[in-house]
Amino acid sequence: MIRNIPDIRKNFTPLQPFAGQYGEGVCYNELFPHHDLSGLIYCYWELKTIAPLKTLFQYKVVADACTDIFFETENPEQLFVMGFSTGYTEFPLGYRFRYMGIRFLPSVFPLLFRVDGQELAGKVTVLGDVLPGIFKSLVQYMPETASFTEYACFFDARFREITTGLMPAIDGRFFNALDIILRKRGGLRLQDELDTGISPRQLRRLFGFYMGSTPKAFSKVVRFQYGLQTGLARSVGEDPMFFYDAGYYDQSHFIREFRQMYGCTPADVMKEK
């Protein structure tokens, strides 16, 4: 277990709102990691078809500030990594599939493996191009028929092995700023409230490495995620002024950012639910 890493999970829950809501034929599951890894990995996830689909399946991922490793179990040698994004992403997965993923909490992937977050942000990258060797044997010995629980146990063992004795450089200035943003739920005036003893330029450099983006962009995603977790999107009709409390300038500002990160408007989400 790696010590001295702030407990990000305490103030932040990365939500993918379609979890468990895909309808007939598609199943989504999550499992939490071993407690030694709970400050590093939010969850392991599985997305699979129960039976072949009649129409092409589009998988939507909303902005959650995390970094994910994922692969299809039929092609375990092809691992991919997706970094920080300020927008939603859609993947056409076909008619039959089974995907597994590992969702790292914000900033953890660059911290553990010294990979510049800016190299991963806003795109999907072949993992072997980023970390040749480290994940070479991550899943290649797992049979395609292994259960999700068996995969999760294997991931636990592999990442506990990787992190044992690992002593990453913990930059307290960055994590102090990260903690402030999370506690403020992304709704803060950066220049006035994000004083961690370093210049804005230095702070942007640190966020560029650990997050792949700026403090402002990270705050936007945190604010959006907080809205999802607390059901603010469902409150639009009940309290049309709630967006002020959530840190938005006005309703159009809220709807614009929501659409960018979710892929549709709050009203559309209300109809879906």
From TrEMBL:
Alphabetical keyword list: Transcription, Transcription regulation
Domain of life: Bacteria
InterPro entries per the UniProt record, alphabetical: DUF6597, Homeodomain-like_sf, HTH_AraC
SMART domains per record: HTH_ARAC (SM00342)
SUPFAM superfamilies given in the database record: Homeodomain-like (SSF46689)
Organism: Sinomicrobium oceani
Keyword hit for Transcription: yes
Name of protein: Helix-turn-helix domain-containing protein
Transmembrane segments: none
Molecular-function annotations in GO: DNA-binding transcription factor activity; sequence-specific DNA binding
HTH araC/xylS-type domain boundaries: 197-272
